[in-house]
UniProtKB/TrEMBL annotation:
<keyword id="KW-0560">Oxidoreductase</keyword>
<dbReference type="InterPro" id="IPR006076">
    <property type="entry name" value="FAD-dep_OxRdtase"/>
</dbReference>
<dbReference type="Pfam" id="PF01266">
    <property type="entry name" value="DAO"/>
</dbReference>
<dbReference type="GO" id="GO:0016491">
    <property type="term" value="F:oxidoreductase activity"/>
</dbReference>
<feature type="domain" description="FAD dependent oxidoreductase">
    <location>
        <begin position="84"/>
        <end position="443"/>
    </location>
</feature>
<protein>
    <submittedName>
        <fullName>D-amino acid dehydrogenase</fullName>
        <ecNumber>1.4.99.-</ecNumber>
    </submittedName>
</protein>
<dbReference type="InterPro" id="IPR036188">
    <property type="entry name" value="FAD/NAD-bd_sf"/>
</dbReference>
<dbReference type="InterPro" id="IPR006311">
    <property type="entry name" value="TAT_signal"/>
</dbReference>
Length: 496
């Protein structure tokens, strides 16, 4: 591998913004773990053959478990229109930006490939969460303490920002202000959780450590031994939240065209965005397409889509709920490298997400089932919460988040006239932050740059080209899985 790097690919890697050291380190790691990655991460699309499991895994939905196509679908764009700002993508970011621009009195057009909530905004776990659980080690490598502190504040402030929007737009999205816990499932995870809690504290994040006795006093399921508890934030119904933003945007006069993908755009003082049967001309374009952005020709060497799945059980009976405990319904994530998440919903189902992450070759985002991920989530759910073994699954789904090599948000303006704005790189933490960043970009377009938006500016490292990119990312993910599996084996051994 290093011989190859010594010649042409090394030049490509360095041109792409990676130092030789980081590239070699990553590529070497990839070389070690890629065979495992191929075995463990390939996105299999055929269901499995065993009765109960098969029935569960066939609950696949092409949409997230929280949304349906709206009854009042807005017509697709036909013909040529103009606006002050055109926004592509109607998730939390695009709709929050549209609302703020409309408040400023701008004429706003939003074009959405499907409908709001089709993307990650309708597929997530619904944690309205601040800075806990961020990838601090990656994020803080290339920036100073002051900027890192501002970025932690950005994530933490976003929680209050969104809570304010529920009130402002009268959005009932089953929000439970429960706080949330980053829990250990094995004593070996305590050191890492405490260390990361300390880094968060040094940068202004407020949380407390819960020991075994405190976890049991809260009535949390016994698999979760100890953890970092952040009292702010909680869980919500993301479908109701994104549809609430959609309603508010329509009420505010935003012109929303659904079933209307951006196909291409021309740069210049007036940008022309082409759609299948029309066009929008505007002096400003904002990309709020997150994981789908690289396919549209922007940020293709800065961010990648990562494929993440979720499963949801059928509603639990009263008796099952009683024996589960968990009376305060805190959102739980684990201290694994690829976190596991568990939460109760208002409909008394349990949703579990993440555990396995996959990068699809060529930054593609196919809307297909990923049975391997559902199976792993299901097995894991039964291990953490054995009471659920007899509870069938109601839904399985998959979505895409976008991530940069440094796990930091990717926000800025590009084009000859610096009139093409973008936000991507949510890294799977976007319910709060993507909402607030959309709003802040709209403020910037309106002429005031919020300090927390300025704090996000930094040089995003470039990614190597394919096939190195695929090998590197899936190799690193497989390495993380290996470490996580080791912890999980210890948990199983201890229980045996
Ligand atoms: C399984 C899963 C669990 C998650 N859990 C959490 C969580 O608990 N908490 C948390 O904070 N974050 C979580 N996330 C991340 C969070 O959902 C995202 O960060 C957030 O929804 C991103 O919002 P967005 O508006 O930037 O992007 P999206 O919601 O993805 O919106 C982008 C929109 O662009 C549209 N689009 C794509 N191409 C085009 C085009 N050519 N033209 C026009 N429109 C286009 C898409 O249809 C989509 O509606 C999770 C994500 C996943 C997948």
């Amino acid at each position: 591998m290093s011989t190859v790097l010594d010649t042409k690919q090394e030049e490509q890697g360095e041109r792409a913004g990676m130092t030789r050291r980081t590239f070699v380190k990553g590529a070497a790691a990839a070389a070690v773990v890629v065979p495992a990655a191929v075995a463990m991460q390939s996105a299999r699309t055929e269901p499995v053959e065993d009765g109960k499991e098969r029935a569960d895994l066939e609950k696949y939905r092409t949409l997230g478990g929280w949304v349906e196509k709206p009854d009042d679908m807005q017509p697709a764009l036909e013909g040529d229109v103009s606006a002050d700002v055109v926004i592509a993508g109607a998730g939390f970011a695009g709709l929050s930006a549209a609302l703020e621009l409309a408040r400023q009195g701008a004429k706003v057009v939003v074009i959405e490939r499907e409908f709001p909530g089709f993307g990650a905004s309708g597929r997530n776990a619904g944690y309205l969460a601040g800075a806990m659980g961020l990838e601090y080690d990656l994020m803080f490598k290339g920036i100073g303490k002051e900027q890192a502190t501002q970025i932690v504040r950005y994530y933490d402030d976003a929680v209050g920002f969104v809570e304010g929007k529920f009130k402002e737009h009268d959005i009932d999205c089953e929000y439970v202000q429960s706080g949330w816990i980053r829990a250990g499932v094995h004593p070996s995870q305590e050191k890492k959780i405490r260390e990361e809690m300390q880094i968060g504290a040094e940068h202004g994040h407020k949380s407390e450590f819960l020991d075994q006795a405190q976890m049991r006093a809260r009535g949390l399921p016994p698999a979760f031994l100890f953890g970092e508890y952040t009292p702010t934030g909680g869980t919500l119904h993301p479908g109701k939240y994104v549809m609430g933003l959609r309603r508010a945007a329509l009420r505010a006069g935003v012109k929303l065209y659904e079933n209307t993908p951006l196909l291409s755009y021309t740069e210049g003082p007036v940008i022309q965005v082409k759609t299948p049967r029309g066009s929008v001309s505007a002096p400003v374009l904002m990309f709020a397409t997150n994981a789908y952005t690289p396919q549209l020709g922007l940020l293709a060497n800065k961010v990648v889509p990562l494929q993440i799945s979720a499963i949801e059980t059928e509603p639990l009976s009263k008796a099952q709920l009683a024996s589960l405990g968990w009376p305060r319904r805190e959102g739980i994530i684990t201290g694994h490298y690829s976190m596991e998440s568990f939460r109760l919903t208002a409909r008394n189902t349990i949703i579990s997400t993440v555990k396995r992450i996959h990068y699809p070759y060529g930054s593609k985002t196919p809307n297909v089932p990923v049975y391997d991920q559902y199976r792993e989530l299901r097995t894991n759910l039964h291990e953490r919460l054995p009471i659920l073994k007899d509870v069938a699954l109601r839904h399985c789904w998959t979505g895409y988040v976008s991530a940069a090599g440094d796990a930091l948000p990717v926000v800025g303006a590009t084009g000859e006239n610096k009139n093409i704005y973008y936000t991507a790189g949510c890294s799977g933490h976007g319910v709060a932050s993507q909402s607030m960043v959309g709003h802040m970009i709209a403020q910037q377009i309106g002429g005031t740059e919020p300090p927390l938006l300025a704090a996000l500016q930094h040089n995003t490292p470039s990614l190597p080209p394919e096939p190195f990119r695929w090998c590197l990312i899936n190799g690193l993910l497989a390495g993380a899985n290996t470490l996580d599996d080791r912890v999980n084996r210890k948990v199983r051994d201890a229980a045996a």
